[in-house]
Specification:
heterodimer; A: alpha+beta; 4 domains; about 10% strand; B: alpha+beta; Rossmann fold; Dna Ligase, domain 1; D-amino Acid Aminotransferase, Chain A, domain 1; 18 strands; about 25% strand; ATP-grasp domain-containing protein (chain B); ATP-binding (chain B); ATP-grasp (chain B); ligase (chain B); ATP-dep_AA_Ligase (chain B)
Chain lengths: ~650, ~425
């Protein structure tokens, strides 16, 4: 007969007592039994309740001693999911650790380094990051990636959610949605799934403010206008459009456009409306896109082309391109002479079968959108939202940075390489006089590209990634940081030829850091650089550090602007291709994505804070200001920040 | 000398005498450290350097040492330990036996202690010594290369009057200085010889011994066996239980005599030994080999479960010459005084890739089942087995009937816990 929960709980208590009594050096001998018994309880009915009764004792007894979970203050919410999915021991200890956090959050246990609030915030964040486990959705990817431990994790999260305040949870969730939408990414899948989950969580006791905010997001994807709210089904909505008078069409257009402008999210009805207007009432398009004067002028100038683009690429399945189209018109990209023919070429381009299949995978099946439509819609988005390009789960920040830069400053070039890759399966770059063809190359940083990317990236990244790697390989033995030569060749002449890095190329030691800081100030900071403005984005290398300031790795971002924020402080505005521009970098350095003068898609940091994470940048050797004038206190502050974070992993000379 | 000075001197002398001396635990075993701490004995751990950070974190007095590197540094180690106040050394695993021997030779000022410890580290020397002392052993020889092995296999089978085409009786080969069953191989044919690794030479070859194999754990003080445990092997390296079943236990007087004979022959004075024997139906004992360290197969844990005393404490107690007879008497129970059998099954995956762990409910619900220490493994290739050391997990049983215990161990020995 299987043992009852009561019997299992007794065995667990016995094991925990044994562990608690053991001297510190012999805990490991008794931990195994505690984990074993905990595992049995996790599987039992009411097991979590039983385990939780003793959670206040876990730390003191030594449940986490000498392991990765030892210090509660060092735990990180993003790592929880991985442990829960891992089989065996990590899952068990992770569960016990969550219960420990809950005990701290509820004041049942105390921890000198973690307060009640901190513990609660930790758990809220864990919940938000793992909402798919709390509300298993039926999405394709969730189904395919089903893990064996999901059931246990679901049980855990259900248990935690009964103890945590749903208000705090919904607030965290709304905060997370706002944080992500503020950056206006092209790929919105994650945002949409978070909104869907938040919708399920709303209950009677949810605070009114929260509900209002949440409703805005929910309707943004489901139908934010009077008519779309009434006719959720796009077929019915389309029929209705034919029946309403012009005045109602205008208010319908304004309502949809307002929601889109507020959230960056497009409802499927919006695409339907745009198609309808382009045929019946093109004069109203400017309302439906809520264009500013520059946008309207651009629309007027290119009306035939815009209508053609809408007909060939804007469908409910590619609805986010509505936002891209509005932004593209306001950026005036269509006025560049190569853009119009470049876009027209894509409509009828003969796309290779492999690229065709990759493009199809970006929309749901059964929507009947052609690969060309998807590619044109994607191109519109990239041209409209150059800072919305993301690298997805791939280590291809360089390629994303390139697409973003070209979309901003060289749309003609971008429109040349897209058909090359989509039709010919090849890109060629000239590097120091030699031709590099991507079709002849193997490998690259991401041989198994994650396909969760926008259409243009899907087409280009496999080629760009290989070319960039090949260029870096060719300069690998020059005894200097290869980015010096590769960046100008890869991105184009917009990149300055001067280059400075913190590393001594031969030894890898940090060399003359003070000089590095001063040079950066003298070439970039308006107080010291003789007022030379930054004209093109500067591709720079940064150290990515975690919330504790520990070095995680190197990353590529682009400085887009340097300007005073509303408080009058100089900030560096930058494009971070990882589309999660507000991760906490430790030492109170937390990039902001809105509220400090950022444009859509930009992250920003005060000038000195950003400098403390910089490891390489380009500069114009003919535009240097006064390096000597940079105050020592500024340099010393930055040096301290650097030495106490990423600097711990390097030798300083 | 002034009077007050004299007084001062005596008080120092007294302090020296009553000063608690330290026990050096040679090797690394948290169980042994726990035992020493529980006995309130001051101790120093002499262990591999990689344990230094752990020792520091938990305030364990620690000296880092590389046991595999032969050097002249034992004198330096001795002086370091002496200065710290150590007076005896207890070996915890195979590679530490001669180091503890060298240290104890200095502590006790008896150089022979070291030579005796070497006897336990060379399986050839061990056999020869046993044979000289009149202990029954198989035919054995040392081999330096594969040709030696081939010749020995042939000659043993000639002596057994095997004819051309008959199946050969196997011979067994084992490296001279490896722990337990590391590198042990049964050779039936010439082809088997190719499986021997070059690094296993020099090795000991011996004829196959018939009969039931078992091990003893003898706790020795002042050259006398204070307590003898008999461990019954269900399958060598896979399962065993303590104490032995009645049919083997009834031979206890015979076994006790044989073990004492071995202790006398090897001039072992203090500590624990772990000899292995083969016994035939008619009660003839053949000596296999002997080690002077903590035995494998969780035998110390089983002894604790069955007899209720900590074998680690017993080892430390018996390693200390100044332990009194009263202390020993009080410590050890009557070997016939046990209620239940304690057994364990060591699990090793029978497949190359493990994906999941499956513990049958009937096993967990069996009244003899106590606990196991297996967790669902992260997916991956199974490590190759070296000796019987790196099993994936252990299942512990405890129950009244030795036949039931044997059945359980045999039943689950072939069960695939890992799939």
């Amino acid at each position: 007969m299987p043992q009852t929960t009561g019997a299992l709980a007794e065995r667990f208590i016995y094991a925990l007592d044994q562990l608690a009594q053991a001297p510190s050096f012999v805990k490991s001998k008794y931990q195994t039994d505690v984990y074993q018994e905990a595992n049995r309880l996790i599987d039992a009915d009411d097991g979590f309740e039983n385990l939780y009764q003793h959670a206040a004792r876990f730390e003191e007894a030594g449940v986490f001693q000498d392991g990765p979970w030892e210090s509660a203050e060092k735990l990180q919410p993003p790592l929880v999911a991985g442990s829960l999915k891992a089989k065996g021991l990590p899952m068990i200890i992770e569960v016990l650790s969550e219960l420990r956090m809950l005990a701290i959050a509820e004041g049942k246990a105390s921890n000198t380094n973690v307060t009640r609030t901190m513990a609660e915030e930790f758990l809220n964040e864990v919940m938000v990051l793992n909402l798919n486990l709390l509300f298993p959705d039926a999405s394709e990817s969730a189904r395919i990636e089903k893990h064996e431990n999901d059931e246990k994790a679901e049980k855990l999260f259900t248990f935690l959610s009964t103890h945590l305040s749903s208000t705090a949870l919904i607030q965290t969730l709304i905060h997370e949605i706002k944080r992500l939408t503020a950056q206006r990414p092209i790929m919105i899948k994650r945002i949409v799934s978070m909104i869907r989950m938040a919708k399920e969580m709303v209950s009677q006791d949810t605070e009114k403010n929260d509900t209002t905010e949440l409703k805005q997001f929910i309707s943004a994807i489901e139908g934010p206008s009077p008519l779309s709210g009434q006719f959720k089904d796009v077929h019915a909505y389309r029929s209705q459009l034919k029946t309403i008078p012009r005045a109602d069409l205008i208010s319908e257009s304004v309502a949809l456009a307002t929601s889109m402008r507020d959230t960056g999210l497009v409802a499927p009805h919006h695409a339907t409306l745009l198609r309808f207007l382009s045929k019946q009432n093109p004069g109203l398009l400017t309302y439906a896109l809520s264009l500013n004067s520059k946008g309207s002028a651009n629309l007027e100038e290119n009306r035939e082309l815009v209508i053609q683009l809408i007909r060939s690429s804007i469908f409910p399945g590619t609805r986010q391109a509505v936002y891209g189209l509005a932004m593209m018109l306001e950026r005036g990209v269509l006025s560049h002479s190569p853009v119009a023919p470049g876009l027209r070429r894509l409509i009828e381009l003969d796309i290779r079968p492999d690229v065709r299949n990759a493009l199809y995978s970006t929309t749901n099946t059964g929507e009947g959108v052609t690969a060309n439509s998807i590619l044109v819609a994607g191109t519109i988005q990239v041209l409209g939202q150059p800072l919305g390009v993301g690298q997805g789960f791939n280590p291809t920040c360089q390629a994303a940075r390139g697409i973003s830069l070209w979309a901003q400053h060289a749309p003609g070039f971008l429109l040349e390489i897209i058909p090359r890759a989509a039709r010919d399966g090849d890109l060629d770059f000239t590097f120091e006089g030699a031709q590099i063809h991507s079709k002849d190359l193997k490998g690259g940083l991401a041989p198994d590209l994650d396909k969760e990317l926008d259409p243009v990236s899907l087409v280009l990244v496999p080629h760009l990634d290989k070319i960039y790697s090949e260029m870096m390989t060719r300069v690998a033995l020059r005894g200097e940081d290869g980015h010096r030569w590769v960046n100008p060749a890869f991105y184009g002449n917009w990149v300055q030829k001067g280059f400075s890095s913190v590393f001594d190329p031969i030894t890898g030691y940090v060399l003359d850091y003070n000089g590095f800081i001063k040079l950066f100030y003298a070439t970039h900071h308006p107080d010291y650089n003789d007022d030379y403005e930054l004209i093109y984005p500067n591709p720079v290398g940064i150290f990515i550090t975690n919330v504790h300031g520990k070095l995680l790795g190197l990353h590529a971002v682009s400085i887009t602007r340097i300007a005073k924020d509303p408080q009058g402080i100089y900030r560096i505005y930058f494009y971070n291709p990882n589309n999660d521009g507000s991760q906490n970098w430790g030492q109170n350095i937390e990039p902001s994505v809105n509220g400090s003068g950022e444009q859509e898609g930009e992250s920003s940091l005060p000038f000195d804070a950003f400098t403390s994470r910089l490891y390489a940048f380009h500069y114009n050797p003919y535009e240097q200001g006064d390096a000597y004038a940079v105050e020592n206190t500024i340099v010393q502050n930055i040096r301290t920040l650097a030495q106490e974070s990423w600097g711990r992993d390097y030798t300083w000379v | 000398m002034e009077l007050d000075q004299l007084e001062l001197n005596t008080s120092i002398e007294e302090a020296e005498k009553t000063k608690p001396y330290y026990t050096a635990l040679v090797g690394w075993s948290v169980q042994a450290i726990e035992a020493a701490a529980r006995m309130n004995r001051p101790f120093i751990v002499v262990g591999p350097a990689e344990f230094q950070p752990y020792a520091e974190k938990h305030d364990i007095p620690f000296v880092g040492w590389d046991f595999n590197k032969l050097n002249e540094g034992s004198d330096q180690l001795y002086k370091q330990l002496r200065d710290m106040g150590a007076e005896l050394a207890v070996p915890l695993y195979e590679e530490c036996v001669e180091w503890a021997g060298a240290l104890n030779a200095r502590f006790r000022e008896d150089p022979k202690v070291f030579n005796r410890s070497l006897l336990l580290r060379d399986k050839g020397m061990m056999k020869r010594k046993a044979q000289i002392s009149g202990i029954k052993v198989g035919v054995f020889e040392e081999a330096r290369d594969k040709e030696d092995v081939e010749r020995f296999l042939k000659r043993v089978n000639e002596a057994l009057l095997k004819l051309e085409g008959d199946h050969f009786d196997p011979i067994h080969v084992k490296p001279l200085d490896k722990a337990g069953s590391v590198g042990h191989l049964a050779v039936y044919t010439k082809e088997d010889i190719n499986q021997i690794q070059d690094t296993d030479f020099p090795l000991l070859m011996e004829s196959h011994l018939d009969g039931q194999e078992f091990s003893c754990e003898a706790f020795i003080h002042k050259g006398k066996v204070q307590f003898l445990n008999i461990t019954e092997y269900v399958r060598l390296g896979y399962s065993n239980f303590v104490p032995a079943s009645p049919s083997l236990e009834e031979k206890r007087p015979l076994i006790e005599k044989a073990v004492q004979q071995l202790v006398d022959a090897f001039e072992i004075e203090y500590g624990v030994i772990h000899p292995e024997y083969f016994i035939t139906q008619d009660g003839t004992l053949h000596f296999g080999e002997v080690a002077a360290r903590v035995p494998g197969g969780h035998i110390f844990e089983l002894i604790e479960r069955a007899y209720g005393f900590s074998a680690y404490e017993a080892q430390i107690l018996c390693s200390d010459p100044s332990t009194t007879e009263e202390e020993l008497k009080e410590f050890f129970p009557d070997p016939y005084d046990y209620q239940n059998y304690a057994g364990c099954l060591m699990v090793h995956p029978s497949i190359e890739y493990v994906e999941d762990l499956k513990i049958p409910e009937e096993l967990e619900d069996h009244p003899y089942f106590e606990k196991h220490d297996m967790f669902t493994p992260p997916q991956g290739k199974v490590a190759e087995r070296v000796g019987f050391g790196n099993h994936y997990g252990t299942i512990f049983f405890f129950g009244r009937d030795s036949e039931e215990m044997r059945d359980l161990l045999e039943t689950y020995e072939t069960y695939n816990f890992y799939i």
